[in-house]
Amino acid sequence: MNIGESNDELIDINQDGTLDFRRLTVVTPSQVANTAGFDVLVMVFPIFARAVARDQLIANPDKYRVRAYVHTIITR
């Protein structure tokens, strides 16, 4: 994945052939002053969110019942 791109994955967590979750991962240049790092956002949604546009999920995760929300900064 390149900076500024997102990864959008459908996940079958128990490999039973049924999709369980949708995971979005977004990596952008860090907004923190004086760092040469990246902001990383990972959100996991129930599978019903697979038909929702990525931008809508990112803008309003609670509306789509986000199950996991991790936002961190990675620096060098």
Question: Would you spell out the secondary-structure blueprint of this structure?
Answer:
Layout: E1 6-11, E2 21-29, E3 38-46, H1 54-59, E4 68-74
Question: Can you walk through the features of this model?
Answer:
With 76 residues, the chain is mainly beta. It has one domain (6-74). It contains 1 helix and 4 strands; from the N terminus they run E-E-E-H-E. It has one helix at 54-59; strands spanning 6-11, 21-29, 38-46, 68-74. It has a 4-stranded antiparallel beta sheet with strand order 1-2-3-4, with no helix packed on it. Strand 2 (21-29) and strand 3 (38-46) form a beta hairpin. The chain is elongated. The model has no long low-confidence stretch (mean pLDDT 88).
Give a short overview:
The chain is mostly beta strands and 76 residues long.
Return residue spans where pLDDT drops below 50 for at least 5 consecutive residues.
none
Which class do the helix and strand fractions yield? mainly beta
Portion in beta strands: 35-45%
> What gyration radius follows from the Cα positions, in whole Å?
14 Å
- String of helices and strands: EEEHE
**Global outline:** elongated
Number of strands: 4
Widest beta sheet: strand line-up: 1-2-3-4
Mean pLDDT: 88
